[in-house]
């Protein structure tokens, strides 16, 4: 079950991390060469941070978890902004603040909900 959760988490976060790059690539075809993104080790630290935050019981507004990669100088945090229920699931709105090796920093807001099986998934 943990492996499935990590796969779902990886998929969801890959979309919101890579989507801005894909959109920019439509305008500048080689945008990936103009600046560094997140390294695989940064992504893993980010995912681990989100996993820790989602596992904290009970979820409370203001709870936060941070990550930092001394090798790449990238870092970030995830903070719960709102806790609520939707379709019988406990959910929270989380702001993910990411600072890659070079500015600018990025902020993403995702809603995470705990399913009946106990998995946390993003709500689209």
Report the radius of gyration as a whole number of Å: 15 Å
Strand order of the largest sheet: 1-2-3-4-5
- Helix content range: 25-40%
Query: Structural class given helices, strands, pairing?
Result: alpha+beta
Give a short account of the largest sheet.
Answer: 5 strands, antiparallel
Distance between the termini: 22 Å
Structural write-up:
With 124 residues, the protein is an alpha+beta fold. It has one domain. The protein is 34% helix and 32% strand. The protein has helices at residues 2-27, 40-55, and strands spanning 64-68, 75-86, 89-99, 106-114, 120-122. Strands 1-2-3-4-5 form a five-stranded antiparallel sheet. A hairpin with a 2-residue loop joins β2 and β3 (89-99). Residues 14-35 have low confidence and may be disordered.
Descriptors for this entry?
124 residues; 32% strand; alpha+beta; five-stranded antiparallel sheet; elongated; 2 helices; 34% helix
Short description:
This protein has 124 residues and is α+β, with helices and mostly antiparallel strands.
Secondary structure layout:
Layout: H1 2-27, H2 40-55, E1 64-68, E2 75-86, E3 89-99, E4 106-114, E5 120-122
Antiparallel strand pairs: 1-2, 2-3, 3-4, 4-5
């Amino acid at each position: 079950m943990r492996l499935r959760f990590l796969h779902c988490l990886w998929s969801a976060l890959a979309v919101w991390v890579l989507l801005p790059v894909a959109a920019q690539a439509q305008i500048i075809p080689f945008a990936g060469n103009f600046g560094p993104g997140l390294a695989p080790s940064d992504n893993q630290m980010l995912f681990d941070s989100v996993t820790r935050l989602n596992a904290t019981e009970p979820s409370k507004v203001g709870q936060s978890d941070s990550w930092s990669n001394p090798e790449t100088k990238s870092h970030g945090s995830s903070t719960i902004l709102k806790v609520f229920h939707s379709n019988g699931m406990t959910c929270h709105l989380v702001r993910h603040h990411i600072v890659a090796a070079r500015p600018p920093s990025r902020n993403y807001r995702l809603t995470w909900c705990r399913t009946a099986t106990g998995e946390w998934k993003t709500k689209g």
